[in-house]
Amino acid sequence: MTSLSLFLILVWLAAFVSGQLLFKRAMESSRAAGFRNRRTITTLSIGIVVMTISFLLNLGLLQRFDLSYVYPFQGSSIIIITLLAAVLLKERLTPRLILGTLLITGGVVLVSMS
Amino acid sequence: MPNRPTGFANPWFQFVLNILGVVVYELLLKAGASATANPASNWSWIGITALASPFTWLAILVIVVDLVIWLYILRYIPLSIAFALSRTVDVLVPISCWLILKEAISPLRWCGIALVIIGLVIVAKPAAELEERL
Questions:
Q1: What is the pTM of this model?
Q2: Which residue of B has its CA nearest to A68?
Q3: Are B50 and A62 a contacting pair at CB < 8 A?
Q4: Residue B117 belongs to what domain range?
Q5: What ipTM does the predicted assembly reach?
Q6: What is the tally of structural domains in chain A?
């Protein structure tokens, strides 16, 4: 793992996490104001651009490493997404959800280390 | 979360379709990336060379359909729950790699997969409670 590949994985992670949050925001907006709403369209469009960047980076990483090695890095995004969903989207976090999220993340980290 | 659709439009049914879609497109992406791998090229880091493979384009098709399904799911299910449960793919993808691509899975990796499964079962509980409130 070179510092360049680590940097690209981090960029991929940031793009992926913000893309998911933008998607959820866009869908909330679509329920409240419809799909023709300007805010829905803007949020969804930015989300799609950000996701496309993370998709292309994903392809680049897959060309260097085994899928079963690269893929689990995405797992570390679970904790970040869960926390940001609570903070930014005001979603309710139950103790079970937090515990389950931690176990999934731990499992994914274990998978990526081995 | 009122007016949850039923039948084919049920967000949980769509969720299962979404998961299967992810497994299919990840395997297609790996097939496309492997077929075109050229680490010597400066462009390979952004993955653009993989577009030469039809597998990659088939994967993109599945990804677009899967994205629409995912957006639909997010209309009805909180992101924290939907995303945590979507990590079912972290179990299914390595196992598919093992079965189809013949990639090796170490004992430690199997332990990680088991841990993910336990976490998923625990998260499924708040999801079921969410369902009761609907």
A1: 0.82
A2: B94
A3: yes
A4: 7-133
A5: 0.84
A6: 1
